[in-house]
Amino acid sequence: MAEPESAEYQGRRRAPVPALRGTVLVAGGIGVAVLVLLSLVVIVLTAPQKPRVPAVGQPAAPPTPAAPDGSSPAGRSPTAARPSPSPSPSLSLSPSASPSSSPSRSPSPAPSAPTSQPPALPPPLQPVSYEAEASGNVLFHGARVAPMGGASGAAGVYALGAPNGGMLVFGGIAGGGGGRYTVTVYFQNPDRADRAGRMTVNSGAPVTLRYPSTGPASVASTSVGVVLTAGTGNTIVLDNLDSRAADVDRIVVAPS
């Protein structure tokens, strides 16, 4: 029988085993790395190629159509095959014309002190005619409007005075600034004898008037001086208490 080996001998024979295992592991790792590298190369070679993306800002070239005669378009000029892009409109950033400078203002002279002047007098009143048949007048006690031959408005006021006490009131008589005026009465008296009448201004004392005969188709006039107040609030009344007064066409008021 063989004798068992001593412990010292067994240790010396098993010493190279770890070095051998390291070599095997390194070789295995290199083999795995080679396989991985080969796999990557195969994947890259067999993968489909992606189309080239044109640069940003440049339009992609359109596909070149085949020529009708079958010839290859490779020999054609690029200029003829691709239309030149139209230039983009440029924005003008030049400033507009500068506004003209505002004119300098010279100081205005100081206003002179107003001079005291006497108050202006009202303009002289021109003669104003008032028709007896005007709608603004007032008729009392049977006085009436009827046609009148020779009258300015072809009509007048009849039946003034007795026996019915007819009365004609002119209102709104203009007196300007006030003062003396002349009132002219245009009348008609168809009788052979004279007629009498009276005039009252602004509720003052009545003034007696004489109306001579005019015939049935004529108009005459008589005048009397009166005093009117300023403004247009004057009234003139024509009537008669004792007898029939003349028929009235109109009155005219004028400054004396």
Structural summary, described in words:
This protein is of the alpha+beta class and 256 residues long. The protein has a domain at 128-255: Sandwich (Jelly Rolls). Helix content is 16%, strand content 27%. The protein has three helices and eleven strands; from the N terminus they run αααβββββββββββ. It has a five-stranded antiparallel sheet with strand order 2-5-10-7-8, with no helix packed on it. The longest helix is centred in the N-terminal third of the chain and has 30 residues, at 17-46. The model is unreliable at 77-81 and 89-101 (pLDDT under 50).
By DSSP, the count of extended strands is 11
Q: What is the average of the pLDDT values?
A: 78
Helices and strands, in order, run as HHHEEEEEEEEEEE
* CATH structural architecture of the domain at 128-255: Sandwich
Task: Sum up the overall morphology in one term.
Answer: rod-shaped
* CATH homologous superfamily grouping of the domain at 128-255: Galactose-binding domain-like
CATH topology of the domain at 128-255: Jelly Rolls
In terms of structural class, how would the helical and strand content be classed? Answer: alpha+beta
Cα-atom Rg, whole angstroms? 67 Å
Helix share of residues? 10-25%
Q: How would you describe the oligomerization state of the chains in this entry?
A: single chain
Strand fraction equals 25-35%
- N→C terminal distance: 189 Å
CATH class term of the domain at 128-255: Mainly Beta
